[in-house]
Every structure is written in structure tokens, then in C-alpha cells.
Amino acid sequence: MFIGLDLGTSGVRALLVDDEGAPRHSAEARLAVTHPKSGWSEQDPADWIAAARAAVVALAADRPADIARLRGIGLSGQMHGATLLDANGGVLRPCILWNDTRSHRQAARLDALPGVRERSANIVFPGFTAPKLAWVAEEEPEIFARVATVLLPKDYLSFWLTGRRVSEMSDSAGTAWLDVGARAWSPDLLAQGGMRRDQMPDLLEGTDIVGPVRGDLARDLGLPEDVLVVAGGGDNAAAACGVGTLTEGDGFVSLGTSGVLLTARDGFAAAPDSAVHTFCHAVPGAWYQMGVTLAATDSLNWLARVTGETPAALTRALGEDLDEPGCVRFLPYLSGERTPHNDSAVRGAFIGLEIATGRDDLTRSVLEGVSFALRDSLLALQASGATLDRLLAIGGGAQSRYWVKLLATVLDLPIDLPEKGELGAALGAARLAICGVTGAAPAEVMTKPLISETVLPDPRRSAAYRDAHAAFAQTYPALKAMP
């Protein structure tokens, strides 16, 4: 048996699978995010430990016979978070999360330094880890002076489980300290960010073994004493392992809190000027690229809050038949935007409201705006040389039949819907554990899900949506110019 332990922003999920990767049971524990100031987003790492403990203990209580045969735990988690430890392993301050934008000035300064984009393979976004540490150095110098190690969120769980301060390639690629092509910490990037090599954890590949769970902790959690912890991957890389996105041409679109369009690459092919992320894969010796829109289902959730409806009720009211593009245009930049604009300050907007505009018009425009933003990501990925002829749809938004039809038409690609079942980062983490402990090849373990249906673009609407996207793309400069 193996566990995939996924540390998300809203909770920790522990998924128990057998040695063939078939899910057996799961447990979850919720997390909260604090926002001390506008643009700030933080969590207390002690809450991660409490949630992970609760989830694992629940599995052990519910499935004691299976847990007795547990061999490994693989990790996945939210990327970019800055978890600062002192020399004794104590946490110095709350973790600054991936969606925190306070370090936008520091990010711009680092991004402008010579060679940074070339070595890191990415624009330095405010959400990345390096600008967060530059902010701490400037605003909290007494804390910065005590930083002995910077760990990413899931790697703090690894530290708790094993006592080792390590990370792996896919998560570390989102720090702006890693030479992504060389898969190693970059002395130049560290120096430009005001950091030292000794403050970085040791680097592993995603299938490498970190070590056994500490004996006292294993007993406390109800686990066997010989359980091994495997390094795992950042959430998107782990999700790619969970759906078998491993080689050139494989890709998925995730309609979650943020929207992600991800494709595996057979080699290293950076395109930082387009705001495409080029990261190491959790699979050894591989890379992936993705475009990100920061508010996907978050945009729909926002509309649900202000209308007093549920997201499901809003999308259900649209039916299943795809309409022509609506007259209302929505810019989904409620939390800023990454691909292709790299703009943490821009905010969203409705355009074209009139006295006759109703709730369904607003819902339709929100779904269209997010879909158009994902087309921006697709075009950026294609410009970098990525080839995609179809996509797998995952995430909560993929439950909306209308949205999937809309997205297939806007992207002009067939979209495969997987059969009901376990998908995503926790499954990917468990698969990484299987490979790490047993030595099995990733391609044998990380298979693609069975497809229940393929949704094709609507040829009657394709031209209209191409024109609507062109109008959408022209709106950003005008929105950006507003005071």
C-alpha cells in the first residue's frame, strides 16, 4: 500500500492506493488562509502538520489492515510558498503563499537583472519564492537574518516526516533560484536574489527516496516503522503524473481555483517572454510547460457569492447547448494575471452591461472570459513549440457540460472527459511513491485514465468565438491603461 499526501491551499488530502495504483480510501482535513493586508496570503505551517496528521491518522483508523502493509508516502503540494526555518528547524514566520502579491516590486527588479530569465527559464512572477525572500530582506530584516533554510510547503511536510531538509526539481523550478535546464541550484540566481547555497535544501528527483518516517512519529500516526517517504512533486507536476501526462503531445486543462493548461515536453524548451511557465517534471529527466489564469472557478465562485446562488446552479441554468458569444465581456483578472500578461496589479471587469443584462448573461460571460484567458495560454504554448491535438479536462469546472463545450470550441481542440474516479495530485503523489519504492518505470505506473466521452468543438460557433476572443485580447491594454 502507498499514500499520496497532497497539501493544497484549502486542505490536506491523503489517498491510499494499492501497488497497482488503484485507490482504496481517502481522508481530508481543511485549511484556512489568512489575509493580513490587501494582496497578502499566508498560512501557519503548524496548521499543515495538524491537517496532515489528522488525515493520516484517519486513514490508519479506517483501514488498519491496509495501513499495516504501507510501504511508502509520496508528497505533492501547492507551489512557491516561502517557509522560513531557523538553524534549529523552527518556523520564523507564517508561510507566504503562491497567491500572495506583496513582492511585486522585488519580482520586477529581479526579473530585470541580466541572465535571470535565461537561467530560471521563467519570468520572475510575484508569486514565486525568490521575490518573497527579497521582500522579507527589505521589510523584515531581523527575520531574514535568522533564515537557515527555505522550504516549499510540501517539503516542510517531508521535514516533519523524516527530519531531512530536501526538495525536488518540479517544485524548486518555481522558486527562480533553480537553473531549470540544468536541474540544479544556480549560484548566480541565488546571489542575485540575496541568498546562499547553504540556505537551500538538498535536491532530489521526484521518485527519489527522502528516508523513512521517523520512528516516534510513525508510532504516533499508527504507521509501520519502515515506511519510506518519496520526494514527490509540485501540485501541477503531480497532477500530470496522476493523469499520465508524461511525453510530448500529452496535455490537460484544469478548471480549478486557477485555470491551468499544461503540456509535457520531451526536452527543455523555455519561452519566458510569453509568460509560459517552463518547469522540471516530477518524472526524472523531463520537463513540462503550462499557462496559468489565476481565477478560473474562482471567478465563478465570486459570481455565485454576489448573486446568492451556487456555482452549479449558475451553470445549470445555461443548459447544455452552446450559444453564440454573449454581448457582455468579462475580464477574469480578479487576482491579477499570469499568462500571457504577468500583471499582478490588473483587475477584472465587465464590459457591455445594459439594463436588460440578467444573471445568465453574467454567468455566460464569466465562463467565456475564463475560456478566452485559457486560449491566451494555448497560443503562448503553441508559440513555444508545444504541439497539442487534444486535451484532458479535469477539475471542478469540468463538471459543467456547457463550460466543456464552450472550452472545446474556444480552444478549437477535442476535450476528453475521464471516467469518474480518482485523479489529480494526490494520485500522482502516490504513483511517485510506487515508482520510488519499487523501482517501477513511470510510464508503467502513470497511465492515462479511461475516457468516458470526447467533446468536440462546435463548428457552427467556431468563427464567432475566434472573433470574440480577438475582441477580448484587445481589451486588456485598455483595461491596463485605466487609473
UniProtKB/TrEMBL annotation:
Keywords: ATP-binding, Carbohydrate metabolism, Kinase, Nucleotide-binding, Transferase, Xylose metabolism. It comes from the Bacteria. Residues 1-242 form the Carbohydrate kinase FGGY N-terminal domain. The keyword Transferase applies. It is an enzyme of class 2 (transferase). Signal peptide: none annotated. Residues 252-434 form the Carbohydrate kinase FGGY C-terminal domain. The active site is at residue 235. The record marks 6 as: Important for activity. InterPro entries: ATPase_NBD (IPR043129), Carb_kinase_FGGY (IPR000577), Carb_kinase_FGGY_CS (IPR018483), FGGY_C (IPR018485), FGGY_Carb_Kinase (IPR050406), FGGY_N (IPR018484), Xylulokinase (IPR006000). Pfam families: FGGY_C, FGGY_N. It catalyses: D-xylulose + ATP = D-xylulose 5-phosphate + ADP + H(+). One of its GO terms (biological process) is xylulose catabolic process. Its EC number is 2.7.1.17. Substrate binds at residues 79-80. GO terms for molecular function: ATP binding; D-xylulokinase activity. Transmembrane segments: none annotated. Catalyzes the phosphorylation of D-xylulose to D-xylulose 5-phosphate. Belongs to the FGGY kinase family. NCBIfam families: XylB (TIGR01312). This is Xylulose kinase. It comes from Sedimentitalea arenosa.
